[in-house]
Design brief:
Length: 424
């Protein structure tokens, strides 16, 4: 308690200022999260006897399948940070798959990436014209883009690819990127992984998957993640674009061309989704366009963006999670995917300890109940039904979004209709 003079012979009692809570920097939180995830996976691998949980093959599949999801999520960030809901990412990604195959046939993998971006950007431009210029509801326009993307690519595949591949659903194979490995680091990590040492081999397997058979597509994606962060959070243009998503009327009053920034954001959103489609084509074996190739990854990219709280780093974490679930399904059998239930039990136990330390009794109790239920499911079955395996990423998407819903903070004007001069 302290006193403050307000005049001759008088004083007012004031309360001391409340101490500010110290928060960890973002990089420290990221490192803690990585260590926690690796620890949970290593513990699960040891206790269940499933080394595929942390194998280099699983990590390679995680990268291959997570990159398209991450690119779609980045596209969602660009659009929604400007106040534009873009559920048309799936359709733009579909356009990108066809464009990548067409460009790859004529000019190789680099042209495939550029062509995929161009076709995705065209879908974004159409979405921007409908929503920004004509004021069409964002959801309605996004659904229309999804339907249009599937219809247009199916028509073009029959028109152009069928005479070449003799198949109306597939394109001829295109040239892939040449991959490279970090040697001799990769061989050393492989040796450590094969020794099956607790924790050490798990870490070696995960790192080995990141430095073995690396595609230029991964490098492009990393650069786009960093570029998105620098442009949207470290540039004047990005500040203006994000202001359009928070309060477009106030941004307009300060001289910001809201329409221009929304157009750029949505077109860039489509281009990123189109590059995600190109990543799907170039990451398949053989590298071809195939009808239904995206398998709803555009929607999973949106989920990764929401899980990541509309930030590039958080979206990277979400895409890695969903890509890992899909990659594990491909690299191992249903028994190994079943072991993820055990990992969920361990994670729930850690959550209980954390919430008890924070004295969040209700949350700790709910987490404990969830851990018991999940462990009962794990104990009662030996493997997941094969019918559920293709939908593992979708199930994890629903669970993660349900758990993360309380901490989300979307842009304030996201999806709100805007007309120039309405604040006058």
């Amino acid at each position: 308690m302290s006193t403050a003079d307000t005049g001759p012979g008088s004083s007012v009692m004031t309360m001391p200022a409340a101490p500010r809570r110290r928060t960890l920097p973002a990089w420290a939180i990221f490192l803690i999260g990585v260590v926690a995830v690796v620890g949970v996976l290593a513990t699960t691998s040891y206790l269940t006897g499933k080394p595929a949980l942390t194998s280099s093959l699983t990590m390679q599949n995680t990268v291959t399948l997570g990159v398209p999801i991450l690119l779609a999520g980045l596209g969602g960030i660009w659009a929604e940070r400007s106040g534009m809901i873009n559920i048309g990412l799936e359709g733009m990604m579909v356009l990108g798959t066809w464009g990548a195959a067409w460009g790859g046939l004529h000019g190789g993998p680099w042209v495939a990436v550029l062509s995929g971006a161009l076709f995705g950007a065209l879908g974004g431009l159409l979405h921007a014209i409908a929503t920004v210029t004509f004021g069409v509801n964002h959801i309605v326009s996004g659904v229309a883009i999804n339907l249009l993307g599937m219809g247009v690519t199916k028509y073009l595949a029959v028109l152009i690819f069928e005479p070449l591949s003799q198949n109306p659903r597939d394109s001829p194979p295109i040239e892939q990127f040449e991959t490279f490995s970090a040697q001799p680091l990769g061989d050393w990590l492989t040796d450590l992984e094969n020794e099956q040492r607790v924790v050490i081999s798990d870490v070696a397997g995960l790192l080995g998957g990141l430095v073995t058979r690396v595609s230029p597509m991964l490098i492009i994606t990393i650069l786009l993640v960093v570029g998105t962060y620098l442009v949207l959070w470290r540039s004047r243009f990005g500040l203006r674009l994000r202001s359009c998503g928070e309060n477009p009327v106030a941004a307009e009053s300060l001289g910001v061309n809201v329409y221009f920034h929304k157009y750029v954001a949505v077109v860039m959103s489509g281009a990123l989704a189109g590059i995600g489609g190109a990543a799907l084509v170039l990451g398949s074996s053989p590298s071809i366009y195939s009808e239904g190739q995206t398998a709803n990854r555009g929607f999973i990219g949106l989920a990764a963006m929401i899980f990541g709280n509309w930030t590039p780093g958080g979206t990277l974490a979400g895409a890695t999670l969903f890509g890992y679930a899909d990659g594990l399904r491909l690299s191992a059998g249903p028994e190994t995917v079943h072991a993820l239930l055990y990992a969920a039990v361990i994670s729930a136990g850690l959550l209980v300890i954390w919430q008890l330390w924070r004295r969040k009794w209700r949350t700790a109790m709910l987490a404990a109940v969830g851990a018991v239920v999940v462990y009962a499911l794990y104990y009662a079955s030996d493997e997941l039904p094969t019918q559920f395996l293709p939908y593992t990423p979708h199930i994890i998407t629903l669970v993660v979004l349900a758990l993360a819903a309380q901490r989300l903070r979307p842009p304030a004007a996201n999806g709100v209709p805007y007309r120039r001069g309405e604040g006058d």
